[in-house]
Amino acid sequence: MATSGSLSVVDMLQAGIHFGHKPSKRHPKMSPYIFGIKNGISMIDLERTKEQLEKILPVVETMATAGKSILFLGTKPQAQAVVKAAAEKAGMPFIVERWLGGLLTNYAHVSLSMKKLTQLKEEKEQGVWAVRYTKKEQLMFEREIESLEELVGGIESMTKLPDAMFVVDCKKEKTAIKEANKLHIPVIAMVDTNVNPAKIDYPIPANDDGIKSITYISNQIVAAIER
Questions:
Q1: Please, are residues 163 and 59 in contact by the beta-carbon 8 Å criterion?
Q2: Residue 5 burial (C-beta neighbours within 10 Å; 0-12, 13-18, 19+)
Q3: Which one of 46, 73, 79, 140 is least enclosed by Cβ atoms within 10 Å?
Q4: What's the whole-model pTM score?
Q5: pLDDT tens across 22-46, in order?
């Protein structure tokens, strides 16, 4: 996969980044990023994608150099494994199961679940369970850990609000984007032909449904963070 230092339209083409949705689903504000229709599908202009990445990746690099945190978000099935792996490689928090309403706007409350998960895991590792609780109670705590891991495992170490957010699917994650907008947290996002890019601070025109496309863009973000 090409690094952000050698962005290639050919690589993007091979990753299927240009595939959008049917013209009937096109959002008017995505028109500047679309060059035409082929086989009944709106085609994303990869030169525009390249231009956007060339503007955005240095911003991501600057954030990372300054020690800023970027929350990776991708809960659609084809994005989950890719986003999780990318975030872990970059050492960033992530959510790939489902967005917790109020995570940003009611962070103090949601962070209690994160602290609870940490506490349960520490007590288990320190042998507190074996001394203090019955086997039935221990099983109950195991199930609670599993549930909390699914909800907040990827953000357990997040001690404050993220400084920015990287989003794969704007439509699916509209609640998260709304929360980020409200708190003026910058949003970096893949914008497919069916979404409104106006509420995205750093839009990247790209197919947000294909695994190869999601992987390519995620890898570019990670490469910028690691530089």
A1: no
A2: exposed
A3: 140
A4: 0.91
A5: 999 989 999 999 999 999 999 999 9
